[in-house]
Amino acid sequence: MEGLSDKTIVVTGGAGGIGLATVQRLVTAGSRVVIADLVSSNGESIATELNEGRGMVHFMPVDVTSVASLTKVADEVVTRFGAIDGVVANAGIAVMSEAFAYNEASWRQTMGVNLDGAFFTAQSFARHMRGRGGSVVLISSIAARSVVQPEKCAAYGATKAAVEHLAALLGVEWARDGIRVNAVGPGRTETPMIERIAKESPEMVATWMEQVPIGRLIRPEEVANAVAFFLSDLSSGCNGTTLMVDGGYDKT
Ligand code: NAI
């Protein structure tokens, strides 16, 4: 894909699901990729496995709820590789709960990872792109635009609606710095996140299949293709927009 070879790109939450598929897609395109994920993730061994001795995949522990942690990784990437060309604010959590049952901790944790984490990821890495250019990709969701059913996800949906608008706000504000900001909005995607929800409520799966026009879950690599597009020069005219990868769900 045009313009991804030899670029340095950071993927938060890159050790699992959509993040890992994105890392794999970028490696195929010739990028140098930093998996930025929790210490407890399998990031180190995944990086070693993907590397096959080529030194193009690196793991740096991060917690996106901590600005200090994000700043440390951004500085380390610049020190080691000279520049940052792109960042994917992919780390996210989905806590399902009826609104009356939400406790303060889980609400704030969802905001902290999905919304505050997306903003401070964008800010921390885009600082190093000012003037030289770069691409920021945020991960939204069908839950940003629809009241998805039957799962109950007020906090999650609220964060994703905000993330989608954040892409527009930052894209416009940073355009003259040469930084493009876009979002990808996946439908329900075959990852550990959705597997956890399906395990808790197996009866939901049949409903999900009925709701999505293409009649199946989205594959992580299909989302990764859209992310790679926004990171690449193929999307040079796109800014502040969201591309849905949802099998047509958003149109129903
Ligand atoms: P996942 O649960 O499979 O992977 C999430 C990754 O984020 C994990 O590697 C985890 O360690 C990491 N992570 C979690 N908290 C973190 C933190 N505080 N700091 C750093 N890393 C952290 O999730 P999945 O499904 O791959 O989701 C990725 C993104 O896509 C999320 O933003 C999610 O909301 C979004 N999404 C997922 C959909 C799905 O159906 N799977 C649908 C729509 C959006």
TrEMBL record:
Under SMART domains, the record lists: PKS_KR
Checking Pfam families in the record gives: adh_short_C2
Ordered alphabetically, the record's keywords are: Oxidoreductase
Q: Which residues form the Ketoreductase domain?
A: 7-187
Q: Which GO terms describe its molecular function?
A: oxidoreductase activity, acting on NAD(P)H, oxygen as acceptor
Q: Does the keyword Oxidoreductase apply?
A: yes
Belongs to which family? Belongs to the short-chain dehydrogenases/reductases (SDR) family.
**Protein name (database record):** KR domain-containing protein
Q: Which organism is it from?
A: Paraburkholderia hospita
